[in-house]
Structure formats: C-alpha cells, structure tokens
Amino acid sequence: MPNMRMDKNPMPVQDPDVRNKNFSEVALGYTEEQAIDEAGRCLNCKNRPCVGGCPVSIDIPEFIAKVAAGEFEEAYKIITKNSSLPAVCGRVCPQETQCESKCVRGIKGEPVAIGRLERFVADWHMANVKEDPEKPASNGHKVAVIGSGPSGLACAGDLAKKGYDVTIYEALHLAGGVLVYGIPEFRLPKAIVQKEIEGLKALGVKVETNVVVGKTISIDELKEEFGYEAVFIGSGAGLPRFMNIPGENLNGVYSANEFLTRINLMKAYNDESETPIMHPKKAVIVGGGNVAMDAARCAKRLGADVTIVYRRTKAELPARAEEVEHAEEEGIKFAFLNNPVEVVGENGWVKSVKCQVMELSDPDESGRRKPVPVEGKFNDIEADCMIMSIGTSPNPLIKSTTAGLDTEKWGGIIADESGLTSREGVYAGGDAVTGAATVILAMGAGRAAAAGIDEYISNK
To answer: Could you tell me what percent of the chain has a pLDDT over 90?
Structure first.
C-alpha cells in the first residue's frame, strides 16, 4: 500500500543563522530511511503525468519504485538513461513547476518530492559506486560541442553514449559553464559538478578549456580543418544587462554575472583567493529571479545587510519559492514595488539607490498586471554596493564570426526543434537560443540536438 501521508518528508537544512555566514550546502539531503518513506508516497499512476512534466522525460515512477524497494543503484541507472547530470538537476531544477506540478498527490496535499529523491539517488551513487561507466565502442564520427554548461554537457553525454568522438570547447579555465560560475556553492557544490563531468569523461568525452570559439578558433575551422562533422553551440547567455540609469558606472556597482563569477568560480570569499571581491556593508540587489536570490544570499554571507529591490510584488517574483523562503530565513529584506532610477554616489562610490515607487495596473488582456510609477513618490535606500540582476543575453562573438548563422534581433541563435541552425551541420540549444532559462530546459535542448546530430550524420 502507498504511504498516504499528505506532506513531503522535509528536507534537512542548516540553521539559517549558521548558514548565512558560510558557503556550505544549505540542504543536507535525505537519509536512506527518509528516501524510502518518501518514495512510498508515489501512486505509480498508469498515465504517468509527472513524466510529461520532465523536459528530459525521465521515467519517474520507475526510478521512485526502485527507491521504495531500496534498490538505489537501479534507480540511478533509470535516471541516467535520460539525464547526464542527476545530482545537479536534483538540486537546482524547478521541479515544483515541472514534474511535481503534475503529480496526482499534489491535488489534495503535497506532491511526491521527486527532485529530492533524484538528488538522493545521485548522491548515493557517488558515495557508494566507484566503477566508471563502460565506454561505448567508437562509431568513427566526430562532433564538437561549444560550451560546457548544461546544454553542452547533455548533448555531449548523449552523443558519447552512441559512440561519437566528442570534444567540448570551454572558454573558461574550468568546465561546467553556469553550473560553476553562476550557481553558488551553498546551492550546488562544485565538487558535485566536477564529479558529473568526470562521469562524462569516462564515456570518452574530451574537454578543452581556455578555448574561446570565435577568437581562438572559428566554427568554420572546427569543421574544415579539424574534421568535425557537426558542431553544437551551447555557449549560454552570459552578457549582462544594465538599466542605463545615472550612476551605474560608480564603484560598487556589479553585474550579477561578475559578482557571482568572482565568488563561485574564483572563490573570492576565501582569504587565500587572488580574486578581489567587495565585502559590502549595505547591498542592494535589483531583480527578482533565482540569480538575484543567489547574489543576495552571497552578499549576505560576505557580511552585508541586504535588500532586494523588485518593481512588482512578492506574488510576481519569478524566483523559486524555496529560494525566496531561504533568503527570507537568512535575514534578507525585500523592497517590493520599487524601481531604481538613479545610483547616488559620493567620492566615486555608491552611497544610496533612489527608487521610484510603483503600483500594479489593472490586468491586461493576458491577465498580467504591469508596474507603473506612482507620480512624485520615491524611496532612497542606503547602500555601498548595487548588484544588477535583470537578465542576460547571448554573447555576440559566435554570431559575429560565423557567416550565415541567423540570429534573433536580441541575439539568440535561431534553431528548429532539433537544434538545427541556418548552417548545415551546425546545431544550437539552451540559453544561446532561448535566452536565460533553467538548467533542465537547457539539458532538454542539448538532448534534442544530440538526436538531431545523430540523425544528420547517420543520413549523411
């Protein structure tokens, strides 16, 4: 009989007043007993709605049934048929709006904790299984992957399993893309990311770091001189946006990309790090997404009094509810219905942020309420640091150095459902196509492109 308890097993976490002073992982993970108990809540529905909510189509009821039976390695094998990064996805994917949102148990209670179970299975495998996966036999074909973020890793993993000779070209000195430079250690330990990448290397995937495609080498050279039969572009969306308001060039103003890269990739919070980072006393973070929450929680751990400024209300925050809850527990404040209009400086440094007070309009035809200024009403928020987290765009480097590659006006590469671009044999996916989105959606795009590349080369 299924476990009919209405609520999930809670995730064990660090105490908020302890964790907001360190960079260790906040969520501690299920025990074996908790995982088996939670897995017992699954009804194993015949129509499997949760699978339809998963961008990479993991056989969720089947892996959960294995967890319920205590067969954790069998559960891992089921997950990894469709996902190359289960330990990552179990931590950072928005399951609450994807697989868990379709769970039948969520109709009258809380859905099964699918993400927490995926994380448990992946962590159990890493802790208990030391053998590398078997390397598939080579099929004699070569494919290049640009970027080692989630879309590139997913594409490379699927192709390697089919016997392709795959090389990933990464611009930074460490593989992982946004997983290592964008997501903080306390949400996604970097050792976990590197362990997942080592698993791909065991399948035969090669990784070349410090290679900036478009400068070090071009896509045309990869195909014509290096003999790659297809190329996948998974270069992400790392170009930060600013508001173009007075004072944005003052000292103490960061893009969230720079701030998080210094902390996450360069470990600037460590005293022995050679990368400098400001330790603000009062920080203002502009934005309401997961990146804004990450920046705010990092600034808090550097000792700052932190305020997140968002021009809508809490109900419209695009960040995961769990991340907002964790931020609030850690003492981060929110200034809703405020929109920065000027960064006020003193002696070249940020002194305060002037914000226009906003209100929400009546719903438009789509039901969305837009923020509109309240005439004559402003707030001044004292700050010595301001972090802009209002979105990113794809870097134009590859577009500008690759003839015949069609892009959107805002910079995204145009690709069909299989990832095929306007260039023969050139595929793209993830944030380079859609703009900034989620890890799991990028992985889904990488898998789709791998299938498209396999079909293209097979038919060629």
So the answer is: 93
- Return the sign of the alpha-carbon dihedral for residues 213, 88, 72, 132: positive
Compute φ and ψ for 315, nearest 5 degrees.
-60, -25
Q: What is the mean pLDDT of residues 409-413?
A: 94
Residue 119 CA from chain centroid, whole number: 15
Give the per-residue pLDDT at 363.
86
CA of 317: how far to CAs of 73, 233, 283, 313, 365, in Å?
38, 31, 19, 7, 20
Tell me what the mean pLDDT of segment 59-68 comes to. 98
Residues 6+ apart with CB under 8 A from 10: none
* Other CB atoms within 10 Å distance of the CB of residue 287: 24
The torsion angle over the Cα atoms of residues 394, 398, 401 and 406, rounded to 10 degrees, is: -70
In sign, the C-alpha dihedral spanning 292, 293, 298, 304 is positive
What is the rounded CA–CA span in Å between residue 251 and residue 262? 16
| Closest among 299, 110, 93, 55 to 179, alpha carbons compared | 93
Per-residue pLDDT band for 272 (boundaries 50, 70, 90) equals confident
Q: For strand 206-208 and strand 371-382, is the pairing parallel, antiparallel, or unpaired?
A: unpaired
Strand arrangement, sheet containing 253-255 = 253-255, 385-388, 282-286, 305-310, 333-336
pLDDT digits (tens, 9 = 90+) for 282-300: 999 999 999 999 999 999 9
Helices of type H across 225-320: 256-264, 290-301
Residues 425-445: pLDDT tens digits?
999 999 999 999 999 999 999
Determine the Cα–Cα distance for residues 120 and 420; give it in Å rounded to an integer: 35
* Cα 386 from Cα 175, distance rounded (Å): 29
CB 213 within 8 A of CB 399: no
Closest listed residue to residue 105, CA positions, set 64, 66, 74: 64
pTM of the prediction? 0.94
Q: Which amino acid is at 338?
A: N
What pLDDT is attached to residue 3? 84
Per-residue model confidence (pLDDT) at position 1: 67
Query: What is the residue type of 111?
Result: P
- Classify strands 333-336 and 338-346 as parallel, antiparallel or unpaired: unpaired
Q: What are phi and psi of 272, to 5 degrees?
A: -85, -5
Buried b (16+ CB within 10 A) or exposed e, 334-349: bbbbbbbebbbbeeee
Contact indicator for 424, 417 with CB cutoff of 8 Å: no
Predicted pLDDT of residue 63: 98
Our measurement of the distance from residue 97's CA atom to the centroid of its chain's CA atoms, rounded to an integer in Å, reads: 15
